Amino acid sequence: MTPLWIALQFLTQLPVRLSGMPTPEQTGRSLLFYPLVGGGIGALLIAAAHLLEGAPAVLQAALLLTLWVGLTGALHLDGLADSADAWMGGFGDRERTLAIMRDPRSGPIAVVVLVLLLLLKFAALLALLEQGNHLVLILAPVLGRSALLTLFLCTPYVRAGGLGEALSGHLPRSTGIGVSAVTALVCLLLGGIWTLLAAAGVFFWARRMMIQRLGGTTGDTAGALLEVLECTVLMVLALQVA
């Protein structure tokens, strides 16, 4: 169960404590549990939505988005901010892009991108809540974290050392492909073909950009992928119920 606790500790702010330092193999296997952690986040969002049913829909959407960000510790939003600054400020240069992503400061581009993404997520959540469509709230966090598993399965990690290298280097490939396939099938049944196609489109578009600029992925670009994919899934689901 250690890989599951590693995934929970890394991806959420839940009070998970490991009994000791995990091995690289356990760290790599933790990727297999990313979709399951996404399901747990989605289940908490659904439970919160049911508890908030008596509140105005606008307030429900705001509180759910706040809970969502709080549960994840804004981990992937930070990656999106760093990636946005780096992509605009890197001027197409690989080393400059990587250097900007290492800078902890956020520029105006990062702020604008974060505001726009959170605004789109809020609007999509509001539309779904007004339709009483709570079950689909599980799809975005599941597909987002499944995308991270798939990304590490098929994309080189370009920074030497660190967690990302351990994840990529010790991920069981055949099992990872199976987990990704099962997750995609479940999400297809719950969300429909258009939701899955939109998620796949965002994945391949973002991966292509990473390969062209960096030759692979980093933790920041992986986080950016997750956030953009989650937002896309929510918008597609909201448009389907409109």
Distance between the termini: 41 Å
Number of domains: 1
Low-pLDDT windows of residues: none
Order of helices and strands: HHHHHHHHHHHH
Mean pLDDT over the full residue set: 93
Residue share in β-strands:
under 5%
Strand tally is 0
Q: What is the overall shape? A: globular
What share of residues is helical? over 70%
How many individual helices? Answer: 12
Major beta sheet summary: none
Compute the gyration radius: what is it?
A: 17 Å
- Indicate the structural class: mainly alpha
Summary keywords:
single chain; 242 residues; mainly alpha; 12 helices; globular
Walkthrough of the structure:
There is one protein chain. The protein is mainly alpha-helical. It has one domain (32-241). The protein contains twelve helices and no strands. The radius of gyration is 17 Å and the shape is globular. The mean pLDDT is 93.
Helix and strand arrangement:
Layout lengths: L1 H10 L12 H7 L3 H18 L5 H16 L2 H15 L4 H9 L5 H23 L8 H16 L8 H7 L3 H19 L1 H22 L4 H23 L1
In short:
The chain is mainly alpha-helical and 242 residues long. It has helices spanning 2-11, 24-30, 34-51, 57-72, 75-89, 94-102, 108-130, 139-154, 163-169, 173-191, 193-214, 219-241.
